[in-house]
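Standup notes
- DV: blocked on the single-chain target, sequence here:
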Amino acid sequence: MTKNKVLRLQAKDLNKKKINSRKIINHFNKSGVIIVENILNKKKADFFINLLEKKYEKFKHLYFTKKLKAVPSHSQFYFAKNLENLHNKDFKFLEFIDNPITLRLINLFLKQGSYRNSDNIICQNIGARTSISKSKKQQLHNDTRLVGSHFPLIVQVMWTLDPFTKHNGATRFVLGSHKFMKYPQKGKTYKNEQVVEAPSGSVIIFNGAVWHGSSKVVKNSVRRWMVICRYARWFLKPSFDFQKNTPIKTYNKMNKTQRDLLGFRFNPPKDEFSGFRTKQKKYQKPSNYTLPV
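- DV (later): unblocked, structure below
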């Protein structure tokens, strides 16, 4: 049996009008993970790191997880600094969800199996995370909450603003595990776990069903910021209610692709008297939202 490998691509090659879509799809379907390098330059990566640090300091004391006695070991909040709903923290973050290079690939992967491979997709979540010093490894998990799906249901895109290395808690994967008819056992280490390293300015794109989790941080005073965009088929629900947590000013500045990705056309009608389609022609404006601080 051929060992699964991570396919590494260069952003400049994916900017071309024609790419070898079939080869990329086949590799993604087999291993479940690909990397695109050099998609962000260092100046832009550093800009977003500084912006994330400022926003995290502003909102960290208000997080609901502060009320919890313990955080589950598979949670994104486990030994990490997190910032969620980036779209309402600063409009600049929205450029991550509709980047033309990543969105081109996401559409190829997620539309498989839909009618004429043309159904809509959404962005379920846009957040950011960094490990902290002495972080323990995260429990391996499957983000789709389902095993055995022939086609991808969820595709994750991790933007590596800092380099991902084996020393700073980079994500480890069990390549090909999206095909397993089981979930990873709690606390078990698997022989074929692979820590995926990537330079700053890359994206790691993976099938949400692939077993994955951050690795142990082995150096003190590390930082590993990444922006995470989770995409899904349009009929799956998002992690947060964008209809209720999007400021009107932000909504008004969004382009059509961004509004589609955040699901502003995919809200079901109130009842049978007001409509009958779960996919609307017109966008439904959000109720105005104000951040707590």
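- Follow-up: The chain has one domain: 7-65+78-233+250-261.
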